[in-house]
Amino acid sequence: MFFLPSDIVFANPEAFLLLLLLPLVVWGYYRKSTKNRASISLPTTDTALSLPRTFRQRLLHVPFVLLLLSLSLCIVALARPRSSTDTQQRKTEGIDIVLSIDISSSMLAEDLKPNRLEAAKIAASQFITGFENDEEIEEENEQEAPVIGRQNDRIGLVVFAGESYSASPITIDHRIVLDLISELETGTIEDGTALGMGLATSIDRLKESEAKSKVAILLTDGVNNTGFIDPITASEIAQEFGVKVYTIGVGTRGEAPYPFKTRFGVKYQNVPVDVDEEALKAIAENTNGQYFRATDTKTLMEIYKEIDQLEKTEIETFSFRKYSEHFEPLVIGALALFLLSFLLKYTWLRVTI
C-alpha cells in the first residue's frame, strides 16, 4: 500500500483469506445485474446496437468497483498492518576503582622498560581504556587502545612515596585520570615508601562509595619505611569498608639497573630489589584480593589484564519491541470509498426500471 511504511508486518495475516470471498461477490453481482436487466422487444436489433453508449452508461459499474475496493481495504485493515522498532536498554552495575601508584625514586629502576614508573603508567592507562585481546604487546612498545575498557566504572588515582595524596577522586570522566597518570613523575613529593598511607588514602576515597564493588589496585616496588599507618592496619580498615585490594609488587628478582646522575652524565649501577611481598600478600588476603609479582613489563601488563577479567562490570540488557498500528488510514479509505459508492449508486448513477 502506497500510504503504508515499507517495513510493514501483519499481526493477523490469516485475515487475507477473506480475499477469497471477493470473487464470489463479483459473481453474485454479475448474476444479479444480468437477471434484473430490462428487455425490449424490437423487430430488429441493428438500430439499437448502432446507438452510442452514454458516459453515464459507461460508469454504471463504478459504484460496485468502489464497494469492492472498500471491502478489500477493510480486509487489509483486519490483518492489522503495523511497523516495529527494536529498543535496547542497559542497566549497569559499575565498579569504583582507585589506582594507587608508587612514585618513589626507586621506580626509576630499569628492570622494566623503559623504567618501572613508565611501565606502570602504560599498564594502568590500558587498564582504563581497554586491552586489545588479539594483539601481542611488546615490552618497549606503548600502544594506543580504543577507549572501550572500563567505561561504566568510576576510577580514581592515588599516588604515594614518603607521603600520599589523592590525585583524582573517583570519576566517570576517565580522560582526567588518564591525563594525570601521564603526568606522574618521581620527585614531586617526599621520597620513601609509605605503603600503608597509600592504601589508607585509597580507602578514604572509596569508603563513601555506594557501588556494588569497591576495588583498590596498589602498586609498589619497595618496603614500607615511613608513614603513620602500617600496611596491615590499613588492610583491616579496607576490610571494614568492603574494599577489595589487589596488590602488585614491581621489580625483578635479585638486582636491577638504576640510573645515577653524576657530573659526567647518567651512570648505571645494579641495586638490590627489595619488595615487601609478605605485607602485600597479607593486604590482599585480608581484603579477599590477590597479590601479583611483576618482574618485567609484559608480566605487569598481563597482571592488569587478569585484574580486568576478575573485576567485570555487571551489565544487564533489556530488549523490547514497540509496535505502531497502521490500520486507521485503511479504515478511513474504506469508509470514503463506501460513501462514494453509495452516493453514486443512489444519485447520478441510479438505475430505475
Describe the 3D structure.
This protein has 353 residues and is α/β, with parallel strands linked by helices. It has two domains: 1-34 and 55-91 and 320-353, no CATH class; 95-312, Rossmann fold. It is built from eleven helices and eleven strands. It has helices spanning 22-35, 46-50, 55-58, 62-78, 116-129, 174-182, 195-206, 231-240, 277-286, 297-310, 328-346; strands at residues 9-10, 81-93, 95-102, 154-160, 164-171, 213-220, 243-250, 255-262, 265-272, 291-294, 314-325. It has a six-stranded mixed beta sheet, with helices on both faces. α5 (116-129) runs parallel beside α10, α7 packs parallel to α8 and α8 (231-240) packs parallel to α9. The two termini are 39 Å apart. Mean pLDDT is 84; it is low at 133-147.
- Terminal residue distance: 39 Å
Total number of domains = 2
Q: Which strand order do you get reading across the main beta sheet? A: 5-4-3-6-7-10
Strand element count: 11
**Helix proportion range:** 25-40%
Mean pLDDT: 84
CATH architecture of the largest domain: 3-Layer(aba) Sandwich
Q: Tell me about the biggest sheet?
A: 6 strands, mixed
The CATH topology label of the largest domain is Rossmann fold
**Quick one: CATH class of the largest domain?**
Alpha Beta
Q: Rg from C-alpha positions?
A: 41 Å
* Structure classification: alpha/beta
What's the number of helices?
11
